[in-house]
Every structure is written in C-alpha cells, then in structure tokens.
Structure prediction request, 716 residues.
Amino acid sequence: MEYEGVYRYEPTGRGIRYESAEPFDPERSTPCVLYPDNRRALLFDPEEMKKREKIPFRPFVLAMLSPKYEIHFDNVGGTGGYGRFAFVKGAVPVFLDEFRCVTAEYENGEVRYTAQDDRISPDPVRVTFVSGRGACGLLIHVDTTDMRLGEDTKLYWLHGGVLGWQTHSPYRLEFSRDMVRGNVVSLSESHAAIRVTEERENAPNPYGLKRFTSDDGWFAKDVPILLRADGDEYSAAPPDALRFFRPGQTVSGSGFGCGSDSGSDYGVGREVPDAVACAKLPTGCVCCAAVGIGSAIREEPLDALFSAVRESNRAVAGRLTVKTGDPAFDGAVAAGAFPTDGVFGDNVFLHGNLSWREGYQGWRVAYGPLAYGMFREAAAHFKNHFVHTRITEGPDRGGFNGTIEDARPDAVAFYNMHQTFLHQARRYWEYTGDKAFAAELLPIVEGAIERDLRRLRPGKELLLENCLNTWISDHHWAIMGQCTQGSAYLYNLMTLAAGLEEDPERKAYWMRQADVVKSDLNRVLWQKRKGVFAYARDLRGNGLIHDEPELADIYHPAELGVADPIRTFEMLDWAEANLDWVRTDNGGKMCRSSRWHPNGGDLYSHSIYELNGGEELNLALAYQQIGLAEPAYEIFKFVYMSLYGGRDPGIPNFDYDTGRVRGGPHLYTHTALNLPCHLSVNGTGRMNPLFGDTIGMFGREVFEGILGIHPPSRTE
Prediction:
C-alpha cells in the first residue's frame, strides 16, 4: 500500500526540524515537551515548603508540532489547561494549528513555528514557545511583523479547559484523546468558549476533567494560573467553574464553529466558558505572552523574561556539546539535554517525564544527569532518598521504599531498586570525589548488603535471587534461585563498600567477600560451552540450571566487573547468534530482550520479549567496554531514531510490528523528543514516552560509551 508523504523530519546540529504541507495533519498533535523551572519558592511560602520536602514535582508543557500547547501543573493539584491561537478574517476563524503550511523546529529547548495560510495572508506568522524557567509556565513570542493583513483580520490567543491530571497514571499518548484538537473553540469578536465532549459515561476515562487530590498536604489547591499579554492579565478559572450536563442534553455554544451537539455519540457534553481566557493580540509587530504561575510572570517585562528564559535554555543545551559533523548525532546530544534536565522533579529524579511521573528510587535514571553534569541535582536525588525512602524498621530494614511519595521507615521493599540505585550513587562519588558523601554512603551500602543477604540469599553460596531488582524486571519474582543479576549487584555493593571504607582491615574484609561472590557466580552460573551466564540455578526439586539468559545477564556482569573482557566477548557473541535482532533504515540495530516464552506470538511481551531503550543502551556499553565501537553505535542509532520520529513519512496508522494498518493514528510511534521505554521494530516509540530509564542511559552512552570519558575509579 502506498502512502503520500505529509511530514518530513530533518535532524539539525542543535535539534530537529519538521515540515508539513498539508492542513489538518494528525501528526501535528505530536508533542515536544518543555520543562519550566521547578523552584518551589515561586509556588509556596516558607511554611508550606517545610511541609513539602518530598513533593512537588515540576510542571511541564506539551508543545505540539503546530502552535498549540497543553500545560500541566501536577504539583499544584493537577490543574492545567491548553491554548490555541486563531486569526479571524471577517467572520471566519482559522486556527494556527490548522494552517496549511507549518514548519516546526525544536532547537535549544524551544519550539519555533513558521505557519502560512493563504486564507489569512500570503506571508507567514512566526511563533516561539519556551519553557518559563523562573516563571513556572510557558513564554510565547508571536511575530506578525512581515504579515500583510486586512483591516478586518484579528489575532486571538485562547487559554482554558483546565485539564485533569493524575500524577500516578502513565500518560500514554496512544490511548488518550487529543485534549486540544478534539475540543471546539468558538470565537465571536472577543468572546471565547471551549466545549469538551467526553467519553461515553460508562467508559473508563482516566484522562477526564478531574483533579488529583491528596490528603497528606503535599499538594496545593486552587492556585490561580495567570495569563499575561500586552500588559493585561487574565485569570484562568479553577476547575470548579466547569458546568456539567446530563447524558443526551443539548449543549450549545455561540459564535463560529460551535453550533450544537446532542451528545448522542458520547453521552456527555461539557461546556467550560468560565474557564477560558481570551486575549486579542496586536498585529504588525512582535508580541510576548505568558501563562503559568510565579512572581516572574506577574512582575517582569515579558520581552525581558522571554530573553532570559531563552538564554537559560541555551545553557542547558550546552551542558554537553559535541561537534562531529553528523547533524543527527550532534542534534540528538543537544536535544537529549532537555529530557535529562526535565527528569529532575525538584527533589529527586522522576521515573518518567511524561509517564510514571513519580519519585521512584531508581532503575537507571541518574546516569544521564551525571553525564550531563547535573551534580547538584544528583546530590539532592541521592540524599533525599537516603533521608526519606530508606527503611530503618521492620523485616526490610536496610532496604528502600520504591517511591518517595510512599516513604515510611517500616515499609516493605516491593521493588529492590536500591541495587542499581547504589551503583548510580557510586558513579556520583567517582565523578565528584565527594568525601562527605562517601562517609554518608558507606553505612547505607553496608545496611543494604546485610538486608540482601538476609532476605534474598537462598543457598549457602554468596549468591542472590532476582526479585524486581533490575530493568527489565517485572517478571523477576522471588523463585528461591541463585541468579546472575542479583549476584552481580551484590558484588558491586561489596566492592563499593571496600572503596568507601578507610579502615584497612574492613577494606580487606569487603574485598574478600566480593571475591567469594565472583568465584561462586562464575563457578555455579557460567556456562562454558555456551559462553554465557545462566539466568539462575533452582534450589528446589532437581536443582536445575535455568540456562536461557536475558540481556541483563549479559551486560550487568560486564558492567559491574564480574566478567573479564574475554567472557564479555563470548557473551556478546552468544547474543548475536541467539537473540532476535532487527534493523532500521538508518543503519541501527537492536535485539529482543530474551527468547523466553510465552511471549505473545513473537510480537511483544513486557519483560520477556521486547525492545527496550534503556536495556539496549546498557548492551551498547558492554560492547564498548571491550573496544567494539561499531556494533555499539548501531544500537545507539536505533535508539535515537525515537528522537527524530524515525518513520517513513505519511504512515500515521501503520503498525510496524504487525505490518498492518490500524484504525487510529499511531501518535506514539513518532513522538518528537521521545526516548521511550518501549520501542517498535523501526526504532520509534511504542509506549511510555520520555521514560527516565532510557533518558538516563542515553546520556551515559553518549558520554561514557561513544566519547569514552569515564570518571576515575576510586576503588583501585
């Protein structure tokens, strides 16, 4: 089947450019995520801040590939909203996101649009979005200087809707309705109204107009969102201003493009005229506008604030700068600075920037910020978890809570993320040489070792079982078996304790213990003929060796020093010969995580048979450890396809894994600035966009893998 190309993706040295020559392109709802500053002083007074040591997480803005946006302040109760721009020529409104020709550029942390439509003018309008660092919101720059407009043409900016947001729910684009394009905005002179049609009443709807609330006092309520344009202020109404209608009741609006809606298809209609602010913007000039929360938006001149925000973002883009002559690689490194910056949620790194916006302890989220030089944020991340999520009472003392929101001293460790979390803390210490941090870290490491041996050691050897301890690990339940991954992490903890310890006798003790772990692991689980570690040895029944490894049984022994270079080469050779590899048209390649069954028909099974960005980048590092740069870079190219859309243009409903066309747009398969949790076989994002695990490994792979820059080892 042939498809007409609509969108063109082009990497640049500082980011990404997108071009469209078709109106009403469904791909224009693809988001580029912007991250406002997260300083709590802008939101809370000092007394309130004392109550919020663990929360809040920073807000974010979803800017689309055309001039419209969604903005979420999940740290102030879930309130948010969306905005659009419209020209009204005579009596006919035309929204900028529906202009016939649109070019969007994501560079240096800002989205720049050039939009042109002969229905309004032969000349383009230029709009720029930047995240409001210091303003907790969005700064907007509108340039109509070169437009030839009739006297009857007016420009409006509308903001409203007040979206619901749940911090716990994964924001999965393929299952959510487009909260901007799908709503109807009516214009009549300076009046605006937005009508939202919800799902049918009995359908599950986790993305409805609903506020996230909490009883623990960590979330502020009803904080007003301020809008400014040309010196005027407009306050967006809180969610209580919404008016609800019964199923089947007619909902009517005023002005153009609204009409009436019986609601027969969906059951419920909701009209929100009181939650809309409408500003008439001047034309023939450059105008600044802002929406958000904070003193800067209230008090500073918007043009000066816009310039300051732009400079701040360029500093973020310059944290790690490379010039290789390959615009795709250089642009990926610059663009990757922003999800890395955005993953810091005011006190800890988040599990995901868009989905799973929670303060989980780990997986691999902190590696990337360390590579990009975010040492201040990394120190806060580790120390806040040391204080808040460490378990000091009960059977799991010495372990950690999974998330900072659920922290309590007598918790049970559901996820054993501390094993990889403490390896990231080790990397921070190796990068910085912070002696005070080392003194604080040592008793925590010793407590974690004691806890793991008490809770996860099933036999007489110094070997641990896997129990929800590494990504991908959701099938790593306790099986009373001696496992490769958990044991490799035990070895890492013991060598870390030896490196942190200043007493010679204690240092020697921990090295002896580490040597026992390494010896037991190689003796019990190394498969000489296969040249790879087994997944586990069962200690029940016939005591069988589970000889089929997964990717983490390869890269963790290499990464953590259990496998020497020869054995690392053997393991990678086994992976190339036995795992299922797929390739992309940019020369990238990636392998499935295992050959385990059942796996859902050789398509995708979570934690069993999948393509995962963080895992693959960890595998690339294993190649680079022994000097195999070319196959590692092929893996990296597969992953960064997700930053650039990585798809054949014009196939918005094509499922690359099944080879079939589906009914609705596959928005998540070409999400800009993605770095997702799960990938499709063409290198694009499958689900969980902007996931902290892949974001963390992206920066580490660039810095430590491709560039070969490593912190000094302080354990030798």
Q: What stands out?
A: The first strand starts at residue 7 and ends at 12. The CA atoms of residues 557 and 714 lie 20 Å apart. The mean pLDDT is 80.
